[in-house]
Design brief:
By secondary structure, the chain is mainly β. It contains eleven helices and 44 strands. The protein has five domains: 157 residues, Galactose-binding domain-like (Jelly Rolls, Sandwich), CATH 2.60.120; 94 residues, Immunoglobulin-like (Sandwich); 93 residues, Immunoglobulin-like (Sandwich); 285 residues, Glycosidases (TIM Barrel); 67 residues, Immunoglobulin-like (Sandwich), CATH 2.60.40. It is globular and about 100 Å long. The termini are far apart.
C-alpha cells in the first residue's frame, strides 16, 4: 500500500532550510521515475523514458489520449492472444536493503480472470547486468470498473543496483492502460557496495562503493567497510551529484565465506544513516577451473587442453613471482610444462599440446611468490576412446553409448539424491541450478563438472542444459566455451533445451543457430528439445507440437494429478480432462513425428490448495500409459524444485517411485523392443501393449478410469499361464484369454508362459 508521507518540518524549526537538515531528517525524496505521467511520445510511439518489452506473442503498445488517469496521455497495451507484453521504465538507481514504495494506476478491459495477470513487476539487476529474480509489486483485479491503483512496498534485494519497473500482461490478454507511476525511496541518502557478484578478491585492491544522493546535498559523510578480517573508514565530501562513485582500500586478511558491511555516516550522528551487509566469498589464492575439455578423445590426435587459472592475490604479492602449469601422468612423471614469469592477478589462460596414451592424468598449476611457500591447485584429466564420449540414436529410437542402449528413467533436478537414484534403477540425471548460467556472471564450471562426475559415479548419464541465456543475449563465444568444456565427459548423455520458445524467451532463429553451434562443437551428442514449436498459446494442434526440424529428441510434460475436468493448459502439462479419466498426453498420442519423444511425468505437488503428489498407483499408471502409447523415455518432474518430490519425500512417496524405477529398469530390455500386435481388450477404458525380447513376452495394461473393471485381454500364441509382475500372483490363460479385475487406475504387467 502507498502511504502519504508525514511532514517532518515542525513549526518550531520551520525557519530551518532543507540544506541544514541531516540526511536522516530530510523528507523522503520525490518520485524516482523518469516521466511518471507517461506524457508526450518521442520514439516508437511511446513516452520518453519508457520502452516496450514483448516476449513471445505480439501485442500493440501505444499512447492513448482518450483513456487516462491524469494528465494528457496513458499507455495502452492490447493483446489478442495470451502474451507477455510490458512497458518498461528507464533504470532507477537503488541500494540493496532499502525500501521502495511503488505504485501505478491501471484500467483493464476484456481481460479474463483465469488467464495470467495484469501486473506491475520490479526487475532488479546487479552492477554486472545480471538479472535478479523478478519481484511482484501487485496485480490488478480484471473485474474492477475504472481506474485502480496497483501498489506495494519492496526491499531491494542483495546485489541490486538498478530497478526497472515493468507494467503489463503476464500470460494474459485483452487491453490494459497504465498511467501515473511512482517509485519513492524511504531514504534520500544511501550507499551500496558495488561488487558485481558475491566474490571479493584481493586482486581488486579496493572495494567500489556508490553513494545515491537523491537530495543533491553537499556535505561531508563517512564510509566504513568491514569484513574478511579487515576494516577501513574513509571521509568523503558529497559533491551534489545524484550518483557518486568511490573506492575504499580494504586489506583482506581472511579467506572463505563471510560478510562485508558498509556503513554510511554523518559527523553529527553516532548511528549510521544507512547500512548494507552482504554475504561474500573470498576465493582461494589459486584456482584451476575444469579443463577445456575435461576429457580428451585419443582419436582426435595429440592431446590439447586449455587451462584457466584464477590468481586471487594482491598486485604486491605478484611482484617477482612465477606461475607454471604441467601435465602429470599416473606415475608422477611430468609430460608437459608451461612457465610464466611475473604472474599478474586475475585469470591466466594457458594452452598445452602433447602426445599421450589413454589413461588418467592430472593438471597442476603452481604459483610461486617471491616470499613464502608455493601455492598449488589441480584438476583431474583423462584421455579416453571416442566410444565413451559419443551417444547416438539407434534404429529403435533409444540412445546408445559405448555399444549399450540406455533406457531413460530420470529425475528433473535430481542431483540431491544422485547415488540413491542410481542404485534404485534411474539412468538419467538432470539439473537446473548446478549447470545454469547467467549473463554478466562467471559460470560455476566446477559445480557443473561435479554434477557430471557424480552422475557418472552413480552409473547414470546426464541431460545437460545448454547455456541458453548466453544464446539469447548473443554471447556465442561463452556458449561455445561451455560446450567445449564438457563435450567429451563420459557422463554426458545429451544436450537439453527447455521452454525457451514456449515462454517466448527464445526466438526460432536463435534455436536454429544454437543447434548449428552444437553440431559444430559437439557432433557426438544429440539435442533434446523440451519445447513447443512456437509460443505455447499458439500451439493448439497437439499433433504438430514440437520444433521437429531442430531436435533429435523431444520431450514435454504431463501433470494430470489431481484428476479433474478442465480445459487444456500445455505450459502446465495439462491436457483437456474428462473428470476422473487419466487421459494419455495428446502431444504423444497425436504426434506427427517419428523422432523419439520422452514424457516428463509428474512427481511434484502443484501450488493450488487442492493439489497433492501422485500416489503409488498413479505413478505406475502414468509411467506405463506413457510407454504403452510410444514414449521412449520417462523423466519425473520432481527433485528439489518448487513443490518437488525431494522437498517432501515421504509425502511424495519417494519409496514407491524408487520401486517403480527398479521394476522398469528390470524390464528395460523388453520395453525397448519393437511393439508386437496390440492385444484385444474388452474395455475401452484400458490401454494395453505387448512386447517380446530375450525370450520374454509381456503384456502391459492400465485402467485409465476411476471405476473397478472386469477386463478380458486376448493373448496370441495361447500360453496357459502368466505371472503378474510385482503382485506375487499368477493368472490362468484360458482359450487365449486373460480375465482379470482392474481397480481404479490399476496397472497389471503379465509375463506370458511363466508360472509362479
Amino acid at each position: 500500500m502507498t502511504r502519504r508521507l508525514t511532514p517532518l518540518v515542525l513549526a518550531a524549526v520551520c525557519c530551518l532550510t532543507a540544506a541544514n537538515l541531516t540526511a536522516q531528517e530530510q523528507p523522503a525524496s520525490g518520485n524516482l521515475v523518469s516521466n511518471p505521467g507517461l506524457e508526450p511520445p518521442a520514439q516508437k510511439g511511446l513516452p520518453d523514458g519508457w520502452s516496450a518489452v514483448v516476449i513471445g506473442a505480439p501485442a500493440q503498445l501505444a499512447v492513448d489520449a482518450e483513456e487516462r488517469h491524469e494528465g494528457r496521455l496513458s499507455v495502452r497495451i492490447t493483446a489478442a492472444e495470451v502474451a507477455r507484453s510490458y512497458v518498461r521504465s528507464e533504470p532507477i538507481e537503488v541500494a540493496p536493503g532499502e525500501k521502495l514504495r511503488i505504485g501505478a494506476w491501471v484500467k483493464t478491459r476484456g481481460v479474463p480472470a483465469d488467464k495470467g495477470t495484469v501486473i506491475a513487476i520490479a526487475d532488479f539487476t546487479t552492477s554486472s547486468g545480471m538479472e535478479l529474480p523478478a519481484m511482484k509489486v501487485g496485480t490488478a483485479n480484471p473485474a474492477a470498473v475504472g481506474w485502480q491503483q496497483v501498489s506495494g512496498t519492496l526491499t531491494a534485494p542483495p546485489l541490486a543496483v538498478r530497478l526497472h519497473l515493468r507494467l503489463g500482461f503476464s500470460y494474459s490478454l485483452g487491453t490494459c492502460w497504465w498511467d501515473d507511476v511512482t517509485v519513492r525511496a524511504e531514504r534520500p541518502l544511501v550507499a551500496r557496495i558495488d561488487l558485481p557478484s558475491a566474490r571479493l578478491s584481493p586482486a581488486m585492491g579496493a572495494v567500489p562503493v556508490t553513494i545515491l544522493n537523491r537530495g543533491a546535498r553537499k556535505a561531508p559523510v563517512s564510509l566504513t567497510l568491514s569484513g574478511a578480517g579487515g576494516a577501513a573508514k574513509t571521509e568523503v565530501a558529497l559533491t551534489g551529484a545524484r550518483v557518486q562513485e568511490e573506492r575504499i582500500p580494504l586489506k583482506i586478511l581472511k579467506r572463505g565465506r563471510g560478510s562485508l558491511s558498509l556503513a554510511l555516516g554523518e559527523p553529527a550522528r553516532e548511528e549510521p544513516v544507512f547500512t548494507e551487509s552482504r554475504a561474500v566469498t573470498v576465493p582461494p589464492p589459486l584456482t584451476l577451473a575444469p579443463l577445456i575439455p575435461t576429457h580428451w578423445v585419443i582419436e582426435d590426435g595429440p592431446a590439447q587442453l586449455r587451462a584457466e587459472i584464477a590468481l586471487e592475490v594482491s598486485p604486491d604479492e605478484c611482484r617477482g613471482s612465477s606461475l607454471s602449469t604441467r601435465i602429470v601422468d599416473s606415475t608422477g612423471a611430468v609430460r608437459a610444462t608451461l612457465e610464466i614469469a611475473e604472474a599478474a592477478p586475475g585469470t591466466a589462460r594457458q594452452s598445452l599440446t602433447v602426445s599421450l596414451q589413454e589413461g588418467s592424468y592430472r593438471v597442476e598449476a603452481e604459483f610461486r611468490p617471491a616470499e613464502g611457500p608455493p601455492i598449488k591447485a589441480e584438476q583431474p584429466w583423462a584421455v579416453i576412446p571416442r566410444r565413451k564420449a559419443s551417444v547416438r540414436l539407434n534404429a529403435a529410437g533409444y540412445l546408445e553409448q559405448d555399444g549399450r542402449a540406455v533406457f531413460p528413467l530420470g529425475l528433473f533436478n535430481g542431483g540431491a539424491r544422485m547415488a540413491e537414484a542410481g542404485a534404485a534403477g534411474f539412468t538419467v540425471s538432470h539439473a537446473y541450478n548446478a549447470v545454469r548460467v547467467q549473463p554478466g556472471q562467471s559460470p560455476d564450471d566446477q559445480r557443473a563438472k561435479d554434477f557430471l562426475d557424480a552422475t557418472e559415479k552413480a552409473g547414470m548419464r546426464a541431460l545437460f542444459l545448454v547455456p541458453m541465456p548466453w544464446a539469447v543475449s548473443g554471447d556465442w563465444e561463452s556458449f561455445r566455451r561451455r560446450i567445449r568444456m564438457f563435450r567429451n565427459h563420459p557422463g554426458l548423455l545429451a544436450w537439453d533445451e527447455e521452454e525457451g520458445l514456449a515462454r517466448g524467451d527464445l526466438k526460432p532463429e536463435t534455436l536454429l543457430k544454437l543447434r548449428q553451434v552444437l553440431r559444430e562443437e559437439d557432433p557426438h551428442h544429440p539435442l533434446m528439445v523440451g519445447d513447443s514449436r512456437d509460443v505455447i498459446g499458439r500451439v493448439t494442434d497437439r499433433s504438430n507440437f514440437f520444433p521437429v526440424d531442430v531436435m533429435d529428441l523431444g520431450m514435454w510434460w504431463w501433470y494430470p494429478i489431481p484428476l479433474a475436468a478442465r480445459p487444456p493448459d500445455a505450459l502446465q502439462g495439462e491436457d483437456a480432462a474428462k473428470g476422473g479419466e487419466l487421459v494419455p498426453p495428446s502431444f504423444l498420442t497425436q504426434r506427427n513425428t517419428a523422432k523419439p519423444l520422452w514424457v516428463g511425468v509428474q512427481a511434484y505437488k502443484k501450488p493450488q490448495p487442492t493439489a497433492r503428489y501422485p500416489n503409488a498407483a498413479e505413478y505406475r499408471a502414468q509411467a506405463y500409459l506413457a510407454l504403452i502409447h510410444g514414449a521412449k523415455g520417462l523423466m519425473w518432474y520432481g527433485g528439489s524444485v518448487t513443490g518437488g518430490l525431494f522437498l517432501s519425500p515421504k509425502e511424495g512417496d519417494w519409496d514407491s517411485l524408487k520401486g517403480l524405477a527398479r521394476e522398469l529398469n528390470g524390464l528395460s530390455q523388453v520395453l525397448m523392443a519393437p511393439p508386437a500386435p496390440l492385444p484385444a481388450v474388452s474395455s475401452p477404458s484400458v490401454s494395453a501393449a505387448m512386447k517380446s525380447a530375450g525370450g520374454r513376452r509381456l503384456i502391459f495394461a492400465v485402467n485409465r478410469s476411476a471405476a473397478t473393471l472386469e477386463v478380458t485381454l486376448r493373448v496370441p500364441a495361447s500360453p496357459t499361464a502368466a505371472v503378474v509382475i510385482g503382485e506375487g500372483r499368477s493368472v490362468t490363460v484360458s482359450a487365449g484369454e486373460i480375465r482379470d479385475r482392474f481397480g481404479p487406475y490399476a496397472t497389471h504387467v503379465y509375463e506370458l508362459g511363466v508360472s509362479p
